[in-house]
Write a structure and sequence with these properties.
Layout (H helix, E strand, L loop, with lengths): L14 E7 L14 H14 L3 E5 L12 H18 L3 E5 L3 H10 L3 E4 L8 H6 L4 E5 L17 H18 L7 E4 L8 H9 L2 H4 L6 E2 L5 H7 L7 H13 L4 E4 L2 H22 L2
Parallel strand pairs: 1-2, 1-8, 2-3, 3-4, 4-5, 5-6, 7-8
Helix pairs in contact: 1-2, 1-10, 2-3, 9-10
The protein binds ligand 8Y4.
């Protein structure tokens, strides 16, 4: 199926991307992946709560997670994407780095490719170029297993921006239209708390590229460190972080707690619409 016209980007608004993990470690029994019916029910709930995009992931990027084959990953995500594309009115994003998964997911109905490795895996660039999907290019320093050991930057803002702009050029050279690209600083992916704060406080440095920015901070360790809370108790901190991103013009926020985030974004958009009105007086 070709990617449909379910709008992903709306200029001046922040879209909510709900996380749908179909990995064994997101499933309480362990050793089994989330069955498509349960996954679809979770996605349906997120859409009812205000999600505009569902991000389907079949590979865990957690430090301890074991690698999965492309076949395994496709077996997890394709049935879910097919079911979601059939029944949901929102866009579907595929969280993957593997070329075979990119191709299969877009064929099944995904209209966005979310790659934490920014299409650096062999064949991923070509696979993405062969689709008409939007592409989120994320910055990561190091590899998931070891990236938090000792993250180092010359200047985190410009290092991250310059890496992403390098990937943008590679994409454009591969025939991908600039209009298909979204940038993401990759919160928590090879970053200290200081690095994460520097990035969240200065999203304008990425916005200045003129490309839409995606922010994923939901429930991450930085929220835990700042609030002193475990992963299950980070909703309020996560909503605050999403609001901070939205106030700076983030195009998409990737979140676990859709209903709570939707209220936060509504507050942002009301205040920003008012401020726009003030300017015109
Ligand atoms: C609890 C649950 C605590 C999950 C942390 C986490 C991003 C992303 C991830 C991101 C983009 C995660 C796939 C990490 N983070 N994609 N993916 N941006 N584009 N950890 O920041 O959610 S997975």
């Amino acid at each position: 199926m070709a990617s449909t016209c379910k709008a992903i980007l709306t200029p001046g608004k922040t879209r909510i991307m709900g996380v749908l993990n179909v990995t064994p470690d997101s499933f309480s029994d362990g050793g089994q992946f989330l069955d498509p019916a349960t996954a679809v029910a979770r996605a349906r709930a997120m859409v009812a709560e205000g999600a505009h995009i569902i991000d389907v992931g079949g590979e865990s990027t957690r430090p301890g997670a074991s690698p999965v084959s492309a076949e395994q990953e496709m077996a997890r995500v394709v049935p879910v994407i097919e079911a979601l594309a059939q029944e949901l009115e929102v866009a579907i994003s595929i969280d993957t780095s593997k070329p075979q998964v990119i191709a299969a997911a877009v064929h099944a109905g995904a209209s966005m490719v979310n790659d934490v490795r920014a299409l650096q895996e062999p064949g991923a660039l070509e696979a993405a170029a062969a689709t008409d999907a939007l592409i989120c290019l994320m910055h990561m320093q190091g590899q998931p297993r070891t990236m938090q050991a000792n993250p180092r930057y010359n200047a985190v803002l410009t290092d991250v921006r310059d890496f992403l702009l390098g990937r943008v050029q590679v994409c454009i050279d591969a025939g991908i239209a600039r209009e298909r690209l979204i940038l993401d600083p990759g919160f928590g992916f090879g970053k200290s708390l200081e690095h994460n704060l520097e990035l969240l406080a200065n999203l304008d440095v990425l916005q200045a590229t003129g490309l839409p920015v995606l922010v994923g901070v939901s429930r991450k360790a930085m929220i835990g460190t700042i609030t002193g809370r475990d992963a299950g108790e980070r909703v309020h901190g996560s909503v605050a972080a999403a609001v901070i991103a939205a106030m700076q013009g983030a195009a998409i926020v990737r979140v676990h707690d859709v209903a709570a985030t939707a209220d936060g974004i509504k507050m942002c958009e009301a205040v920003m619409a008012h401020a726009q009105g003030d300017e015109q007086e």
